[in-house]
Amino acid sequence: MTTISAGSIRSLITYGLCTAFAVTVGYTLTNVGLDPTYSNLFALLLLGALVLSPIFIKWHYPIMIFSLCSPIWIFFLKGSPPIWELMVVISLGLAIVERAVQRKNQWLSAPSVTLSLVFTALMMIITAKLTGGFGFHTLGNQVGGGKKYLSLTLGILTYFALISRKIPENRRFFYLGLYILSGLPSFIGDIGPVLPSPLNYINVLVPPTISSGQQFELGTTRLGSMGATAGVITTFLLARYGLKNILRGKHSWWRVPLFLFSISCCMLGGFRNVIFTFTLISILMFFMEGLHRTWLLPFFLMIGLCGVCLIVPLSRHLPYTFQRSLSFLPLDIDPDAKADAEGSSEWRFRMWHDLWPQVPQYLLRGKGYALTLEDFEMLEGGSLANGAEAKMDASEDALAVSGDYHNGPLSTLIPFGLWGGITFLWFMLAGLRVLYRNYKYGDPKLRVANTFFLAQYIAHMALYFFIFGAYSDDLFEFAKTIGFSMALNGGVMGPQKARQKNRSALPARPDPRLQPGFQPA
Fold first, then answer.
1. pTM for the whole thing?
2. What is the C-alpha separation between 406 and 453, in angstroms, rounded?
3. Which of 20, 37, 99, 122 stands 20 to 30 A from 6 (CA)?
4. Phi and psi dihedrals of 511, rounded to 5?
5. pLDDT tens per residue, range 98-133
6. Could you report the per-residue pLDDT of 432-466, keeping only the tens digit for each?
7. Quick one: CA dihedral 403, 405, 407, 410, positive or negative?
């Protein structure tokens, strides 16, 4: 009598499942080819997710960390959302399942931040219910504006997805590089349209930032994506090495030129706020690292004086985008670059001037993000923010109607009133406390990274309040910084935790009773 082994049975079961799966995939692909509807594409997506599910179950957290700063978009989903939105939902869902199955998986805790985000979510839901609800015009709803509500919701979920686990101590710098350097492919958005076919299909993953017919000229065309890639390099150098190790470290011979080159290339996009942000971060880190008490302070003052003496007579000969980035300084620059920058600023100031009188009427009940069909008609017929067409009331500009006020306080108070301002201020201050405690009491090995995240957070707050801000987008940026800092440090550090960590790092004292020649008293 022939017996069938357990291995043969497993092979038969695997063969049967693979056969059924292959038939299902073939049938679905046939339907997609004959009738490429979203329902068929969604079925194909579910099958692909089923195939990749073992990878996501094991590696969902590092994949989510990678996606947070990645420029990749999911082109085959409705609306082409960025990859981080999908990965945050997947990672958080799997983290909740892991927590339910294994009770030992404790999430990191920062009660003040958590409570502020819970109140933010409640405030958002109540405001949406009172002002038209959550609607997506792209899905055929009569009311639009739901994309901004979705951005706020995903920003809140990002924080909880990040604090779902602690980054292992031996993998901290790997995750730091994964988190920051994932933004390096951003430059593809600028060079994709000028690449020959079929290489230009890379823009399916990284959307183009310039049109295919636009003239591409380095130094004249505003290459914001290339500037973003340069900003990623600058950010990584500051977060990994700090100003101290960049300027006078063991390998400063290559770090200093790379740092100067990358921070110069940040001006390829012609954005003034980039120069402001990195300058403020560098100044804050200079003092937080104690470099003002060394010989570097007079050295920097001398370098700065020499730089001013050089840039004043040579400013007119810099590339166009560089001149636009420096147009806020009293320099002799190209009139076209200065007019372009001043036109943008004038439009913003005019819109802010016309919008601030509307704030009191929305203090108790915010306007929300809901957009009616009339609003969409106004958006199609309104002018965009180029500063070229003056209006009697700039608050009726297309971007103002859509809620893109280019101002942090306005983008908070008008949609959500006083309650939005209170909850967001609470959230920002709670996050500032978390970053400060991790900077002050964190592991000395993470001193540079914690210094950078605190300086970046303060610079972002200044940018939000005084230069440029968008509540629906900046909540994600703040939550991302706070959550990653907690995951990197293992929570919110304090004096007691720091003492315990230092005590555990000390070698254990030998028991004198086990020493040779010990004589009891």
1. 0.84
2. 24
3. 20
4. -75, 120
5. 888 877 678 998 999 999 999 999 999 999 888 877
6. 999 999 999 999 999 999 999 999 999 999 999 98
7. negative
